[in-house]
Structure formats: C-alpha cells, structure tokens
Amino acid sequence: MSIEILPARLANQIAAGEVVERPASVVKELVENSLDAGATRIQIDIERGGHKLIRIRDNGAGIGKDELTLALSRHATSKLKSLDDLENICSLGFRGEALASISSVSRLTLSSKPKAQEAAWQAFAEGRDMAVQVKPVAHPDGTTIEVKDLFFNTPARRKFLRTEKTEFSHIDELIKRIALSRFDVSITLTHNQKVVRQYRAKTEPTQAITRVAQVAGKAFAEQGLHIQSGESGLQLHGWVLPVGSANTTQYTYVNNRMMRDKLILHAIRQAFEEVSGAQELPGFVIYIDIDPRQVDVNVHPAKHEVRFHQGRLVHDFILQAIKQVVVPLQGEFTSQAQTIEHE
Ligand code: ADP
Ligand code: MG
C-alpha cells in the first residue's frame, strides 16, 4: 500500500462530515459568517427544506475579488492568525473550514462586494480539485451564498436527509436560537418563497424582551423573571419562567454563541431543584458573558460545547445567580390562588 495525500475535494468532503450534517448545519455556518462580517440584515431563503436551495444574503463587510478563491479553500480564515488569537476567540468562526466543506458537497456560488470595491464578483467551485472560477456579477454591498443540491455527490449523506418538513423545522429552530443571540440584527427566513419568520432589529436594550417573546413565546413577556448578575469578566443575564410554566423553551448562550453545555444546564437544574424542588424545568433564555480567555470553544467542530477553564467557579456563579430569581414552589397554595384569580 502506498501513502498518498488526499485530493482536495475528498479531504474537504471528509471534513464536511464533521460540520455539515444536514441543511440546518449549512445555514448555521453561513449565518455565523454573516454575523462575523458585521451584517445587520440577513435574509435566509430555503427551498424544499434546503434539499434544493439554501441562500443567505447579508449586508456585511463582503469579500474582495482577490480573496474569493481563498475564502473557499480549506484552512483559510480572516479571523485567526496565531495561537494567541485561538485562546482569545471573539468571532463565531475561526476554523476556516465551513465554505470549503460545504462547497465540496454541493453546488456553491459566492457573490460579494465590499463597500470599497466598485464591482461585485462571483465565485464557484467545481471539479475534483475544486478549481474556483471567478466572474463579474451584479450585487449590492455585502455577500450572497447559494448552496444548491446539498450532498448531490455524496449519496451516503443524502440518504440521511429527512423530509422537507423535518429539515425545515431544524432550520427554523436554528434561526430562532440565532435570533436570540443578536437582537440588533434583522433576520428574515423564507421557505419556498413564503416569509416564515421576520425578526426586526431591536436596537434599544428594553426592546430585547419583545424579540424574546416573539421567538420563545408570550410567557416570557408576561411572566418572565429578569436576571442580571455578576460583573465584567463573568456576567449572566436573561429571563426565567416561573416553575410550573408550560413553556419549556430553553436557550443558553456563551458570549453570544448558542450552546447546549452540560455544565451550564447542570447549574441551572440544580438551582431550580434547590429552591423549588422542581424536577421539570420551565423555560429560560440565559446569556453568559465571560472573558474569552477563560473559555475554550475549540472543543467540537460544530462548537456546541465549550470548556470553561474554571468550571467549578462558573458553575457556582450560575447556580447562585439563578437561585436569586427562582421563586420557591408553594405547591397547593399556588395552584389554588391561581384558580381563584381566574374565576
Ligand atoms: P471561518 O468562518 O472559520 O473563518 P469559513 O470557511 O466559514 O471559515 O469562511 C472563510 C472566510 O471567508 C472567513 O474567514 C471570511 O473572511 C470569509 N467569509 C465567509 N463568509 C463571509 C460573509 N458572509 N461575509 C464576509 N466574509 C465572509
Ligand atoms: Mg465560518
């Protein structure tokens, strides 16, 4: 057997296995790129659950003509230069793999125009070694990425695509989570040319709850308990619903990145248990802001988890912060009082 370097496309397809699981994962990577590019408006168009088309348009910084090819190649990123940067991550992306991976398993076109550049250009990658072709195109300031025919060349992956409806519901759920990560960005989601979600930018902090209610349910505006705790370096804020609430939407964020982190969920659960004895958690939307040097996001390619350098300290901080707002469960009394009020 001889040892050979894998052709670029195959290497990218293998890497795609880690981050591109389904249409929603493509949407996640592309929307995160738009956010990293400073976009304040993002439009997501989906056709047939993303099987046929995923298109993301943004009004962000754009990519210069000379960098279009580079943007599509593996390990190419503008977000990281050194190990020191890796230990102090302030962007959502940094691996430089998403565009290369996605373009290796789909038909991808990238159109972009930075403000300072007069004309817009479009790139698409094709062929075994992913030779990129660049041509002029009409496009406003910002970037549009179109991903067509996801997994057309990887039948084994395509087989795992679920129905249009299921795949779209994953995208919808993802967009909800992202919408709550950045209140200042307006986000539109369409499916088969119909507007499904429209989240307008909320620039005043007091408007945040309006979006929370729109995304996570009215209960947050009506009964949500606001928490704010800690100081610069380690802070927590957000909303918690009263114990027993039927709304169980549970979102957590670390430095504006959505998370499903075991340590965070454990601390929240413990807080509810200690105060109210509740086994069933109500809904919450919780933001943790921590010095980026105190947390490692490079744990998982899709970055669903983090590793806190001082896990115990963060855990206990979350526990105490949540305990302050959880109202003790009063069992029978609470439900009786509510019955009377309703009559
Ligand atoms: P990463 O986000 O990890 O850097 P990607 O493969 O997702 O890697 O993107 C590669 C590079 O392409 C980014 O670092 C960025 O410079 C550029 N890029 C991607 N999407 C956009 C966008 N929507 N607007 C501006 N630049 C972008
Ligand atoms: Mg990226």
UniProtKB/TrEMBL annotation:
GO terms for molecular function: ATP binding; ATP hydrolysis activity; ATP-dependent DNA damage sensor activity; mismatched DNA binding. Keywords: DNA damage, DNA repair. The keyword Cell division does not apply. GO terms for cellular component: mismatch repair complex. Residues 212-327 form the DNA mismatch repair protein S5 domain. GO terms for biological process: mismatch repair. The keyword DNA repair applies. This protein is involved in the repair of mismatches in DNA. It is required for dam-dependent methyl-directed DNA mismatch repair. May act as a 'molecular matchmaker', a protein that promotes the formation of a stable complex between two or more DNA-binding proteins in an ATP-dependent manner without itself being part of a final effector complex. Belongs to the DNA mismatch repair MutL/HexB family. This is DNA mismatch repair protein MutL.
